[in-house]
Amino acid sequence: MNSLSYSIPKDAILFDSQDEKFKSPFGAIPCGEGVTFNFFTDKSINCLNVSLFLINGKETEYKMTQIGEEKIGDRDYIVWSLNFTAPKPAKTIFYHFKLFVGNENSIFYYGNNSLALGGIGEIYENYPINYQITLFYKNNPTPNWFKESIAYQIFPDRFKNGNKDGKINNPKNNSFIYGKWSDIPMYIKNSKNEIARWDFYGGNLKGITEKINYLKGLNVGTLYLNPIFEATSNHRYDTNNYHNIDPILGSYKDFKDLVKECKKRGIFTILDGVFNHTGKESLYFKEASKSKASPFYPWYRFQNYPYDYECWWGIKDLPCVNELEPSFFKYIIEGENSVINHWMKTGVKGWRLDVADELPSFFIESLKYKCKTIDSESIVIGEVWEDASNKISYGQRREYFNGKQLDSVMNYPLRTYLLNFYNGSIDSDTLCKYMNSLKENYPRENYFALFNLLGTHDVKRIKTSVKEVIQNYPIDLKYLEPATLRVLKSLSLIQFTLPGVPVIYYGDEVGLEGGKDPDNRRTYPWGNEDQDLLKWYRKISYLRSSSKVLKKGEIKFFSPHPDVFAYIRYLPNERDFIGVITNRNPNRSKIFKINLKEFLGQFSNNIPTDIYRWNDPLIIPIDSSTNFPIKIPPLKTLLFSSKSV
Question: Which SMART domains does UniProt cross-reference here (predicted)?
Fold first, then answer.
């Protein structure tokens, strides 16, 4: 019980989960390996003992030991320590501290901060928020080719028609074709708000093959295709046959040619795997609906056969499957002609798993094992919209990053964090906390393989999202477009200089706009591209693809000012580094001094004699000292480097 008359000053306790002085090693750790915790209490509070409470299914108390004293500033601290062996199996575990202070009746707790983002925590009288540690199995690296690549996402119907005569392959029944490639997409719905007719533009696989050199000009190394299997809709998340290419996209040969031509240019292809549900018009569901004797009947969950069945988010066109039903499991993963086998034999390098939250863990684990058996350098990416290290889905905590499931996830949090920073919802210090939280929670192999995105087929176009932010700024409307482009360039530069795989959603690189679905799935504007923006993307993609620092370097985040977010990428014990600083203020430049010793810490002795500032479109040497002034114009992002880039 706490003594109500007793309180502890915040700085009387020191612990920071993101500082190796207090927890070592940093971040996620292999299960079965050692962890050291150091917890500092000011001598003046008369702390009698400290315990660490570990939550791993059950709560276990570990007594910490006094190992000495340390003076920090004008305070004298007692150092409490615990050497701890991380448990098995690999899963996410949690912890907090319990203190007996002043006398045995004064009990306090120290836990995570109110945002649960790790780092410096808070003192609690009860019910502390827990810190987390992600445990993983060792020796499960993510492929270097993927971590060091740039990805490009294509919604196939909307990219390019490669037929010489411009005709559309095999138009679908009860559908309509737009009159012009530049028409704005729309849905035709019935009185029940259901899609009455699906709309198509006629983009196809030959069109993608025709533009491979364009992708190579953006230094793309990974091509991610939205679904290409036979389906009724234009998005094809309602699969009708997993073994067939949708005829409107072309043939099996067209697909093999695409994969082959991509590979010639060092581009690997990833497919969208939709294994949580099929289409209502699929050969599987049709047969299951006709007879309970059908081999496909066990795949589905009928409540009132054949009319009522479990479907994805209540959408009757998308009947859910039982992924662990033996015949479905064999059909997708284990069979000789399984879906995974069939398509990876064409040279496909991996899969993006649709709605990974709704796939059983065993299914994901088995799929990854199968992929790695076929190709040890293959990749499995999950659609997860939150911090994937502590995701709870249907009451179950998911262990995506235990080393046996996902290599990567779509990094939607990055998009959210950056837009929230620019729209004023959070300041730079909070943005740093969010960034450091992902860095702490994700195993390094997964962190450097994150699918870093600004746009996808499921969110508003990034230019549209930025424009909506800028419209709320106190600036003259005549500056709306220039300001939008400034922020767009800033966001893309940040995207291309963070650890992980930058992903371009087709058309974002040329200023394509669009609101919510279906508006975010407009056609690529061939002949009407924003050439200045395209030039910018080619520049930053070259920067990313040619820089060892940006591919492999560590990262430290900084908050010099509430409006200014900064970080530095560096290689330990090497001279090269790249720093990025962005100013979100729409009206004022920010001037302050950058101290490279603070940025680089123990590696600052390797600072070269020349520092460069990289600012579109110029490269300017600015100072040779380790403490130099930086002036950041409004809505601008600057890059400085140890050498000309």
Answer: Aamy (SM00642)
Intervals of CATH 3.20.20.80 along the chain: 145-276+323-546
Domain with CATH 2.60.40.1180 in the chain: 553-641
- If phi > 0 it is left, if psi is from -120 to 50 it is alpha, else beta; for residue 343 that is alpha
Nearest to 30 by CA among 83, 81, 85, 95: 85
pLDDT at position 515 over 90 = yes
Contact 358, 321 (CB under 8 A): no
Rounded CA separation 549/200 (Å): 43
Tell the CATH superfamily of the 277-322 domain: Oligo-1,6-glucosidase; Domain 2 (3.90.400.10)
Distance of CA 500 to the CA centre of its chain: 8
pLDDT at position 619, please? 41
Nearest residue to 85 via CA among 34, 27, 138: 34
The per-residue pLDDT for range 56-67, each reduced to its tens digit, is 989 999 999 999
Q: Look at residues 119, 140, 109, 127 and name the one whose alpha carbon lies nearest to residue 30.
A: 140
What per-residue confidence (pLDDT) applies to 610?
46
What is the number of other CB atoms lying within 10 angstroms of the CB of residue 457? 19
pTM for the complete prediction? 0.95
Note the pLDDT of residue 617: 37
Predicted pLDDT of residue 486: 93
Q: Please give the pLDDT value at position 2.
A: 41
Greatest CA separation found in the chain? 87
State which fold the 553-641 domain adopts: Immunoglobulin-like (2.60.40)
Mean pLDDT for the chain overall? 92
Buried b (16+ CB within 10 A) or exposed e, 226-240: bbbbbbbbbbbbbbb
Please give the Cα distance from 390 to 134 (Å, whole number): 8
3-state secondary structure string across 71-133: EECCEEEEEEEEEEECCCCCCEEEEEEEEEECCCCCEEEEECCCCCCCCECEEECCCCCCEEE
Domain with CATH 3.90.400.10 in the chain: 277-322
Q: Which region among 3-7, 121-125, 339-343 has the lowest average model confidence (pLDDT)? A: 3-7
* CA dist., res. 342 & res. 336, Å (int): 8
Phi-psi region of 346 (alpha: psi -120 to 50; beta: other; left: phi over 0): alpha
Where do you find CATH 2.60.40.10 in the chain? 10-136
* Answer CATH for 145-276+323-546 from 2.40.160.50, 3.40.250.10, 3.30.420.100, 3.20.20.80: 3.20.20.80
- Main-chain dihedrals φ then ψ at residue 310, nearest 5 degrees: -70, 135
- Fold of the domain spanning 10-136: Immunoglobulin-like (2.60.40)
Tell me what the mean pLDDT of segment 218-227 comes to: 98
Residues in the chain: 645
